[in-house]
Amino acid sequence: MNRTSPPPAAAPLAAHARTALAHVAALATGPALPAHVRVTLQFHPDRLTRDGTPVLERLAADGSYYSQYVTGTSNGGLTAYPGGDRHRWESRIFGGAYDSAPPAARPVYGALDDGTRGPVGAAPRFGSSYFRLRPEALRRATFCYPDSAAEPEDFGVRERCAPLDLCRAGGRDPLDAYVETHVHGGVRLADDIEAVVLDAAYRGTPVEAAARRLPCAVEWHPGFAVEAELLRAHSEFRGPEIVAPALEVAGDGRLDPRVIGDAVRAGRAHPQDLKKVWHCLARYGSP
To answer: At CA 163, angle to CA 190 and CA 123, rounded to 5?
Structure first.
């Protein structure tokens, strides 16, 4: 479904979000963001939610994209609870603005796409596919570099965003070289999403069919793929113990996101091992 009409006017931000934005704005330095940048929300479109519902079906039913405080799922660490690392990092970054906020009020995490990644989204570490947000989302977004897990000291908002220049300067592994982005005030599919961009491996699958039912455009990128044997030459990346499950789930010797997703749902290897197999594919099988 393609949407051609402009999004409705944004609803006023809740007090938690306004306080968080003001706190980060006071810390922000650097030049304004270029006009062409977008926020992308990376995800694996063939995964299941906690109750076994395909993730795209759940998104269509809910109408919103939520943080792991609501979903209990993530392609990163699962520490979004009082006393957990995610809770502590957010308290630090946002000056305690969300410490007493309900789960649905928490910011949604993505990354800042300036086009240097090509077509695969800003942070493929977290998924083969992504939602691209409308440019209006930048008005209520905050940024940091590096990732919040690294206790960053550099923060940004749309008008002042040193993190983008720091990220472009390099020095980190490509999977870690992204500007972490926090979208405050919620992400509604019908209002805030410009397009869902899927890996080519999902053409003609139930994933594509589910994506076509979302209230946004469906686009494609060329797809991640790698011969599993190649990972032997890079066994130091996520450890030699990850090569064996990569070879096992590859079947015909080739890895792509659909193959890994099938293995996750079938329980063919430990989920953490398969997450690292995905990291290898994202690192060495980028189009």
So the answer is: 50
